[in-house]
Amino acid sequence: MSYTTPPNILLSQSTKLSDDTFLQMRKFIYERTGIFFADNKKYLLESRVSRRLSALGLNTFQGYFGVLMNGQGVTELSHLINSITINETFFFRNEPQFNVLEEWILPELIRKRKEDGTNKVRIWSAASSTGEEPHTIALIIREKFQPRFPFTKFEIVGTDINTQVLDTARRGVYKDYAVRNIPKAYLDKYFRQDGDKFVLSEEIRKMTDFRQMNLFDRNAMRAMRGFDVVFAANVLIYFDFNSKQTVVSSIYDSLNKEGYFFVGYSETLYGLTQVFKPVHFDKAIAYRKE
Ligand SMILES: C[S@@+](CC[C@H](N)C(=O)[O-])C[C@H]1O[C@@H](n2cnc3c(N)ncnc32)[C@H](O)[C@@H]1O
Q1: 236, 209 contact by CB (below 8 A)
Q2: To test ligand 1's pocket by mutation, which of 94, 129, 133, 267 has the most ligand atoms within 8 angstroms of CB?
Q3: What is the model's pLDDT at position 99?
Q4: Pairing relation of β-strands 120-125 and 255-262?
Q5: N or C: which end of the chain has fewer CB within 10 A?
């Protein structure tokens, strides 16, 4: 009896990501975004990129890489980035950091900006994903500071490399996963429930400004200056040592003197740079530019 391989197996073999193409694509992505796929993350790249192959009706990863490299590359790069980034986030994700912001950093900055006459505090969420982090900051400022300091202006900027997540951030419509950690008083006051969705009020949405930005793009980073606080939480983990250093050094330049930098709960600047002074608070570390 003769045995023939079923067509679906043939197809899955022809669409496998070969080691050579993996290395080419990894280099291509790394050079443009700083995101590094270690050898053990090949399966992840393969599964994420296979969605782009289906969308374009392509059968091979090598063919897809050809598209990235030719004229269509610019648009396709944006689609590729949207499909490979990991965008996990939620409101009040690292609560101790937001407590530090509320109890220590914002009062100090408001006082300083009053003294220097600018009366403006500028905060940047540098990998904002779908917006929960900058919106958390806006909620705290709206509830705790704006009524007491009506003459202080607060600017909150959210940026991300992924254009799709920024659309969600601007809409401000969230599922229960995103809002599960929000104190009830905030949820009741600033969200409207619409079926299984939670719609953030316009008064909070208009406090934030979302823009697409690649942290690895030195020119774009040079345009980001004069911030008092920068959050780049849970993004350095996707970079290798060199990209981390590049991004951290750009963020240093973006901060005002005595400005604060926050990274994610499991991230550290230890071993990366000595230009920041770690300031230890209860359950949170802020890095201050001296
Ligand atoms: C896991 S989310 C973190 C969201 C939020 N900061 C938090 O801690 O909850 C990481 C975000 O970093 C973004 N990202 C990855 N590489 C980036 C780059 N080179 N420039 C800007 N954003 C990037 C991803 O698109 C993703 O939305």
Answers
A1: no
A2: 129
A3: 98
A4: unpaired
A5: N
* Count of beta carbons in the 10 Å neighbourhood of residue 264: 17
User: Quick one: CA dihedral 49, 43, 217, 164, positive or negative?
Assistant: positive
* Residue labelled with tokens 């043939």: 10
User: Rounded to the nearest whole angstrom, what is the distance from the C-alpha of residue 44 to the centroid of ligand 1?
Assistant: 17
Q: Is residue 208 in contact with ligand 1, taking CB distance under 6 Å? A: no
Please identify, by atom number, the ligand 1 atom nearest to the C-alpha of residue 88.
Answer: 1
Query: Is the distance from the beta carbon of residue 85 to the nearest atom of ligand 1 less than 6 Å?
Result: yes
Whose CA is closest to atom 26 on ligand 1?
Answer: 87
In angstroms, the CA 141 to CA 209 distance is 15
Spell out the alpha helix ranges (H) of the chain. Answer: 7-14, 19-33, 42-56, 61-69, 73-84, 95-100, 106-115, 132-140, 163-171, 176-179, 184-190, 202-205, 218-222, 241-254
Mean pLDDT score, 7-14: 44
pLDDT of residue 14: 54
- For tokens 């996990």, the residue is 88
Mind listing the domains of the chain with CATH numbers? 7-84 (1.10.155.10), 95-289 (3.40.50.150)
Instruction: Please report where in the chains the tokens 């995101």 appear, as a residue.
Output: 35
At 15 the pLDDT is 78
Q: How far is CA 249 from the centre of its chain?
A: 17
pTM score: 0.93
pLDDT at site 72: 64
Q: How far is the CA of 253 from the centre of ligand 1 (A)?
A: 19
